[in-house]
Amino acid sequence: MVSIEPIELEGHMFTAVIVHLPKTTLLTISNEIGYIMCGALDVQLLNTRLADRKIIAGRAVGVKTIEDLLKAPLESVTTEAEKLGIVKGMTGEEALLKMI
InterPro entries from the xrefs (predicted)? Predict the structure, then answer.
């Protein structure tokens, strides 16, 4: 099952997507600039093989809900995210607010 819901942070809208798969759940929150995602995100792939796409993204591990994803510290971020001031250790919510 796939669920999509709006998320409002400080007056800015984002889209949360939850994909329920066997034995795991994929979580992402995005806007037109970038996104944060659960541990399934391969930041190294985005920084190397897909570098020409200049993807702005961050990864949090150990999250099970959208609320967890907003509050968890990012474990890794893309090079393009770093250019916006998004750094490892900031919360998902802090990272999203840098994407506005």
Answer: DUF1805, YunC_sf
Distance CA 46, CA 62 (A): 20
- Tell me the two tokens of residue 28: 């992402």
Specify the pLDDT at position 70: 98
pLDDT tens for each residue of 65-96: 999 999 999 999 999 999 999 999 999 999 99
Query: Residue 65 maps to which CATH number?
Result: 3.30.1980.10
Give the Cα separation of 68 and 79 in Å (integer).
23
pTM over 0.85: yes
The token duo for 54 is 């200049």
**Number of domains, the chain:** 1
- Domain hosting 19: range is 2-98
